[in-house]
Amino acid sequence: xxxxxxxxxxxxxxxxxxxxxxxxxxxxxxxxxxxxxxxxxxxxxxxxxxxxxxxxxxxxxxxxxxxxxxxxxxxxxxxxxxxxxxxxxxxxxxxxxxxxxxxxxxxxxxxxxxxxxxxxxxxxxxxxxxxxxxxxxxxxxxxxxxxxxxxxxxxxxxxxxxxxxxxxxxxxxxxxxxxxxxxxxxxxxxxxxxxxxxxxxxxxxxxxxxxxxxxxxxxxxxxxxxxxxxxxxxxxxxxxxxxxxxxxxxxxxxxxxxxxxxxxxxxxxxxxxxxxxxxxxxxxxxxxxxxxxxxxxxxxxxxxxxxxxxxxxxxxxxxxxxxxxxxxxxxxxxxxxxxxxxxxxxxxxxxxxxxxxxxxxxxxxxxxxxxxxxxxxxxxxxxxx
Length: 385
Fold this sequence. Notes:
Elements: E1 6-10, H1 13-17, E2 26-34, E3 45-55, H2 57-69, E4 72-82, E5 88-104, E6 112-120, E7 138-141, E8 147-151, E9 153-158, E10 169-176, H3 178-185, E11 193-199, E12 205-219, E13 227-233, H4 241-248, H5 265-277, E14 291-295, H6 302-314, H7 324-331, E15 341-346, H8 348-354, H9 368-377, E16 380-384
């Protein structure tokens, strides 16, 4: 058997949800896995019509641009359902909205029927917003609650393409033991629920990979006594970028700084996830007034900044936030540093040139100036070098 990359643990959802420890048993070491990695499928985009709409603000601006250019980005759009008195009864969201056209409203020529494309938010409380009897319609708002007008109704014109089903995961070259070995020897059909964890060369866990149900097995071509297992995962699969990050952690936690620098932007984002999964929460914070040195020579994007900041505070492969909200939590203590402190940002010119405004509506990564302002407001003295 070659060096295993994964360990297969027994999984009890009830025990995990109640915080019970020690219920996991090692069921197998696995040499490798197929069809484990997959980027999340973007939400299906649908076409909608805001019927009888009186647009305001950014919606009116985007509509004018769409008339000139064919379509225009708008970002997050919220529809607040109104009761018969005009009071709001809850919101329903479309994400990554684009305005694609409009026409006069047949019922009132002073209003417009506006066609948009967008993806339903995962946070929506229901599949489709429906107005109650005698309702005047919907109030339209932007991501920060800014008023974008009103509309009398919403029509779902076209659904996006159906989602593609991912293949099952194949766990290759597994050496079964314990309850799994007994289930295989006994010819049982129900092999159990398992958790797959990526491990390094010494067998130390690096990061959880997937959870699911074992469906089938066959003898493995990788050696006598080994089996290949089929797993139907119910958790999200690791993104494609996880492969390159886990390879860099394959010999153990990286001891040299900057190992993340050669990763893609998605790889850098996942590097921060892996660093978080391996953060030592019992390590004491450094005292207030400590000076930290950030190597900015590879900070060409926002994920790179957070990788570099994690290493500045907590050493190679260290973690200190993966975004502004997470960074804000880290600055409150228990993550290695205590405010106030000084951050010396070396080669800051790289980030100043690369961390510009992304030209699209909606969410975007912070700019260089916004990062500086964020840190300064929270009593971090930043020295550019």
